[in-house]
Amino acid sequence: MLSNPAWLHRLTCIVAALVLLVAAQGIFAIELPLTVEQAWQIAEDANPTLKAAQASLAAAQGQVTDSRGLLWNNPHVSANGLRRMVPNPSVGDDTQREWRAQVSQQIEIAGQQGYRRAAAKQDLAAIQESAEEAWWLVRAEVEKRFVRVLSLQARVAMEQELVTLIPENVSIAKTRFVAGEDKKLDHNLAEVELGRAINKLEVAREQLLRARAEIAAMLQLQAKALPEVEGSLFANGPSPYSLEHLFALASNRPRLRAFDLREQAARSRLGLERAAVYPDVTVSLFAGREGPVRGRERIVALSVSLPLPLLRRNAAGIRRGGTELTHAQLKGRPPSAIHAQAS
What we know:
Blueprint: H1 5-31, H2 36-46, H3 48-67, E1 76-86, E2 94-107, H4 112-178, H5 184-218, H6 243-251, H7 254-275, E3 281-290, E4 297-305, H8 315-332, H9 335-342
Antiparallel strand pairs: 1-2, 2-3, 3-4
Helix pairs in contact: 2-4, 3-4, 4-5, 4-7, 7-8
């Protein structure tokens, strides 16, 4: 088959088409101007902080699903069978088969279910707010680095234009010096300015390379593969924000809402630990058959058991919940507010 000229021609055409397609994609990826919206999208898809926040959301949603159950403790089912050999002098040993089945359920009596559900919902809401905060921070960091690259591109273009224009001044100064119209100092100053402009251009280029490497690292791209950025450094029209508006936006940050929700969740968990001091009531229902075949008895019974909280009062859990609440308050409030509440 390899010796078939027609088959070889087709294979060559297919390979050439694939090579051209790959090359075209590579050129498109490099030459396409990068806008800030595209940079945001790339960062959102590749940022590990946002992925970790999404994983935390999945865990919190599972916790909420568990807390929504009718009862926190699963029912316990047990069954047993018994074969009893009873001596009978007249007919020999009498075989008796007995069985018993039981269902037990622990029931919380101090509102633990409500505290647990509230804590799970508040934890989920806090993680959602933290994920939104991380999303805004990633966008802000990308925009900051994008604007820096954009401004350095404009600076490099300006310095390049100056380097192009200054040699004309050097030539004019040299001509005037030869003609005796200017002093040699003027000619030397023009050459010094040319050297300074070249140095500024090199510094700007180096800063641009560093800035491109920083934004490429954040976008999980290679610096050489990063396309030229495109955008405007100046907003169209006056800024719609005032100082009061910025203060209002800052006070409504997702991070602050997350702090408040974490404090509420810690308070709910503290209530859960305090309610755990009260014992869980265990209700059991069992049925069975016992006794000989002719005199067999059916047994159906209901039992209730209650442990006495005398030796262990969940002091460790209560102290741990109080410590968690204190930490949540310290993170979410300024020191002045905490001292005022304590007083």
